[in-house]
Amino acid sequence: MKALVLAGGLAQIELLRQLKSRNIVTVLADGNANALAKPYADIFYQIPIFDIDAVCDVARKEKVDFLITCCADQVLLVAAQVSEMLGMPCYIDYRTAQNVSDKKYMKRIFRENNIPTSRYVEMTELDSSRIEELRYPLVVKPVDAYSSRGVRKALNREELETYFAEAAQISRTGGVIVEEFVSGEEISVDVYVENGKAKILCVSNSEKIRDADRFIIFRGRYPVNASAQALRRIEQVAQDIADAFGLIDSPMLIQMIRSGDEVSVLEFCARTGGNMKYMLIKRACGFDVIKAVIDLALGEKPHVELSAPEAKYIVNDFIYCQPGEFDRLEGFDRMRDEGLLAEYCPLRPRGMQIRGVTSSSDRIAGMTILADTLEEFNEKHRRVVESVKVLDVNGNDIMRHDLLPDLL
Fold first, then answer.
1. Using CA atoms, how far apart are residues 210 and 403, in angstroms rounded to an integer?
2. What predicted TM-score, i.e. pTM, was given to this entire model?
3. What CATH number belongs to 185-297?
4. Are 104 and 148 in contact (CB under 8 A)?
5. Which CATH superfamily is 313-403 part of?
6. What fold does the segment set 2-95 form as a domain?
7. Burial of 276 by CB count in 10 Å (0-12 exposed, 13-18 middle, 19+ buried)?
8. CATH architecture entry for 119-180
9. For residue 211, what pLDDT is reported?
10. Tell me, what DSSP letter sits at residue 136?
11. 175-226, pLDDT tens digit by residue?
């Protein structure tokens, strides 16, 4: 068999490894000639992966049996569309993929099915009359972007105009969501829908950099600190979403704001969490979401069986940098060898030009720390943050150490 894998990030490395372990020939397509996952593929194509014709051409040329991706909602839409066009299997049809990856469709379905979410409007041009009933602060989002690109919080009309124009430029369709800001704790809910039943795999906190108007994740923290009633509410909302979007067998990631025992859904997609999230999920409950996606592509039905977490605290921290040309990581191997880090992962290739911290896609690396007490975590974390470096081509440490606070 032969598979076409779309996108070449960290999670796709594991996807490629598992495909090859099943004796499946792997073809990787990515727009970056130095894609992180490129060395792990049997065949590589540098193509714009949102170009449907280009993806179809590769699929036909290589005579692949199926297309597959993970951890990327906009790429899932391409995989679903091309699979449908070429008569290949996919766990989600194109129409459903549109609904779960485009925020304008998603929010409409939320509203029609009484799924708790903030008040909003969708526009391609800013119309003052349509936002009169919305209260500041307002959050502006492109309808079809990812990694928090173009997501900004506007406190007034002047900021709204600026951020709306930026979001419209980022959106491939020019569509923009303007919604009311909801205060509370952001949580990330990873789910597997098995035979229509939404089964919670992992509920974690998504901690954001303290920025006045951006929403950039620097930490994924398990477990979430929530009451039993709040967790039941989260599970019910997850089931309501699966029902509303007609998901039968599918991974699912939901981003919510929790305030007390109530939640408001920011967005979701029929995929697993991106970047290092598949590792956190496996450490938290034993379920391999990458394996599940492959099983689905091959027509098999994954079964959810959960195990105890590896530690009381399982934390993924993400590393950002000052602008510069990335050369190498320093000190991470030693921290792992000393048992302070459970794992670390470079997320960008050597030689990449770093632009600073503008979205979650600017992270340069990620690391995992396990601990059974808060004190143990903070001690490990402090030693790691003090010891590791991200060096540019001139040997300067450009790591933003200041963006990695202790766990509270």
1. 8
2. 0.91
3. 3.30.470.20
4. no
5. ATP-grasp fold, B domain (3.30.470.20)
6. Rossmann fold (3.40.50)
7. buried
8. 2-Layer Sandwich (3.30)
9. 67
10. S
11. 999 999 999 999 999 999 999 999 999 999 999 887 656 788 899 999 998 9
